[in-house]
Here is the input.
Amino acid sequence: MLARGLNCPHTTAGGRWFDAAAAALEALDGEADVAATVLRFELTALRELGHLPMLKTCAGCGRDMPETPRVAFGHAAGGMLCSACRVGHRQVVSLGREAWETLLAFADPLASPAAIAAVPARVRGEVRGVINQYVCHLLGHRPRMHSYLGVLAN
Here is the structure.
């Protein structure tokens, strides 16, 4: 359904997206952290569908993002924005460094679950809000499931 909403008719049950869904369901059937599992799956799905936001470099100019206490995330721009490119963009939110690092960790397909396990509730809420809004922007509307995902921010 997400693939259909993101105009990806070529997505089939075979492949990494299906594998990620199966792994997420298996983890949820066990004792995995629900919020972490869902976030990891969402970012994997976005990557496989070609919509993973740019997190390491500026979506405007392509330069490496500076290491600052807060960074700009442009939903319409498709990811992080440096201070020079942030000017004039709409749908931009300020993201704390911990939230940015959390997104980087969860988006890394090679990161171990232990490396991304303990995310403070404050950071979890910030990340959840950014990803929810990003998916809404991509789809052009708020998915019905988002009302249920709010509990994952706590």
Summary: The domain at 2-153 is CATH 1.20.1440.120 (de novo design (two linked rop proteins)). Strands lie at 70-74, 79-81, 92-96. The radius of gyration is 15 Å.
